[in-house]
Amino acid sequence: MRASRAHVTRLRPWLVVAAVLVLLVALLAGVLIGAADLGWRRVLGEIFAEATGGRSPLTAREAAIVWQLRVPRVLLAGLVGAALAMSGATFQGVFRNPLADPYLLGAAAGAGMAATIVVVATPGASGWVPPAAFAGALGGVGLSWLLGRTTGGGGTAGLLLAGVAVGSFLSAVQTFAQQLNTETIRQVYTWLLGGLNVSGWHEVLVALPYIAVAAVILCVSARLLDVLSLGDAEAESLGVRPARVRLLLLAAASLATAAAVSVSGLIGFVGIVVPHVVRLLAGASYRVVVPLSLLGGAVFLIAADQVARTVLPGELPLGVVTAFAGAPFFVAVLRSSRGKVS
After folding, report:
1. What parts of the sequence cross the membrane (predicted)?
2. Which sign does the torsion angle of CA 311, 312, 315, 320 carry?
3. pLDDT tens digits along 226-271
4. Does a structural domain hold residue 250?
5. How far apart are CA 68 and CA 341, in angstroms?
6. 240 belongs to a structural domain
7. Domain around 229
8. In a domain, 46, yes or no
9. How many domains are there within the chain?
């Protein structure tokens, strides 16, 4: 059975249908169940009334909770999870490393540094944090690419080392900025631990265009990851230019990661856990892994956010929930990948 799955190279329609159905169930559960006890039957009645023009069983305030808090939050969780999971699958394919994640090239460090500087420099101006994090994430990736290109010829090994160096430097800048105003440390760490604090549809509309563009590029180009897995010489013999393909895929994956980070903070393990689960269940071809990781990542983060906002009276940071779920899986992947990580 494992061998047959490993050789699956086409995305079968029934897999997509099954993944979409699971995603729809997760979306519905996220809207029906929340910290405010509205009753799932009454929420269903509100959805039906909104669709048909009938009378809602909810008050105006309760309806606002559904449409201005729950629905955009669930959709945002799906967008962020999809972005991180498909980006993680892409990074693993580009670097041919099963432990690669979306933050490998300094996106997390850049976003964290930029968000920290904004919090320290303009206390209370939280509206500037998302655009600053977006710019910081792209800036961190850009610095890694420039450094890798000038010192390592643009190869994957040079990019990896550049990402480590840039990440360490930007993290040091972030720590220095925190020390300039220690009163903001709590606010900074709240952002760093990740969360989906929506105040309407703004966050969804901000992230959606970038993630949608990246998703189209990555899903359409997924077959090129299969070609790259054969080696650069074989890829060139098939008419593929490895350097250009890697740049395109890393740019699209970094764009999706930056958009996700800008509205959610730093949420770990999604980009490692989901692609590996997809490989185990559906096959190792990136024509299968990338699109199913997109759907699976949405399901995973919606479920994790559901736990974060309902398991305790006070809301848990979303990054803590994904760490609880992802850390044991990461250890299992690490053990199974000994000798394969390059």
Report:
1. 12-36, 74-91, 103-122, 128-147, 159-177, 204-226, 247-272, 284-304, 316-334
2. negative
3. 998 888 788 888 888 888 999 899 999 999 999 999 999 899 899 9
4. yes
5. 45
6. yes
7. 2-31+76-336
8. no
9. 1
